[in-house]
Specification:
single chain, about 260 residues, alpha+beta, Alpha-Beta Plaits, Globin-like, about 10% strand
């Protein structure tokens, strides 16, 4: 699946711009809560202050049109923006192109890391230490011998590689099922993060600041989600897409 960008152009009467911005301020809560939404931004035209552009990054067009619009967050979003729908001048989905990107398109984190082979080396080295660890070992007693390969598959999809985990392993719901009821502790989460960082060094994952910052950002986020979902009485969202992680504010520099 490929991230797409939706642009919506509005022309708002001058006397209604304040209420329009306030409505989107409230509607933003629904977008932030929706797993299909990666980010969004409402911009106001300097030359014609009644014109606005809303940019929303979605995990895919299908997940926007079916996942978000058919999900629990859409009704609240629609209730806030409904009065302004007649003021939309254009609403389209766009793919990113290579034009203007240094040396062509910015590579995915999956490609920058070295693809499936690099991620399998990473998880192989990581789980070799996990099973010997006093804190983490008990969580992985009886681990399937292919578990490291499955985690590499998950990371590959997260970082922009093929959607093999969704196609072959059941996607997010399957990963969620592996954490339910585990009662992961904060000490275990931190050990997990530390051992994975050590494994990344051991197998030679790219050490540039841009990659490691984005990589460890996902690991921090993902382990905190796993910890919360694993607690007794937790009620996590059961259906969601595999998250798609990118470079954030610091894409890689190239010499091209």
């Amino acid at each position: 699946m490929t991230m797409i960008v939706e642009y919506i152009r509005y022309r708002i009467p001058p006397e209604r711009t304040g209420e329009f911005e306030a409505a989107y301020g409230r509607a933003g809560a629904a977008l932030r809560a929706a797993p299909q939404c990666l980010d969004f931004e409402l911009s106001r035209c300097v030359d014609e202050p009644g014109r606005y552009i809303l940019r929303i990054g979605w995990t895919s067009e299908k997940e926007h049109m079916e996942g978000f619009r058919g999900g629990p967050h859409f009704p609240g979003f629609l209730a806030e923006i409904r009065p302004y729908l007649p003021m939309i001048e254009e609403m389209r989905h766009y793919d990113r192109t290579t034009v203007g990107a240094p040396g062509g398109a910015v590579p995915t984190m999956y490609d920058w890391a070295g693809g499936a082979a690099a991620l399998e080396r990473l998880t192989g080295a990581f789980y070799r230490e996990v099973v010997k660890d006093d804190l983490l070992g008990p969580l992985f007693a009886g681990m399937d011998r292919d578990h490291p390969k499955y985690v590499a598959m998950w990371l590959g999809e997260v970082f922009g590689g093929p959607d093999d985990y969704t196609a072959r392993r059941g996607g997010y719901p399957h990963m969620l099922s592996k954490h339910l009821g585990k009662a992961i502790t904060e000490a275990q989460r931190r050990r997990w993060v530390g051992l994975l960082a050590d494994a990344a060094d051991e197998v030679g994952l790219p050490a540039d600041p841009e990659f490691r910052a984005a990589f460890m950002g996902y690991i921090e986020w993902g382990t905190r989600i796993a910890l919360a979902n694993s607690q007794p009485g937790a009620h996590p969202v059961a259906q969601a897409p595999v998250p798609h992680w990118g470079w954030g504010v610091a894409p890689p520099f190239t010499d091209d």
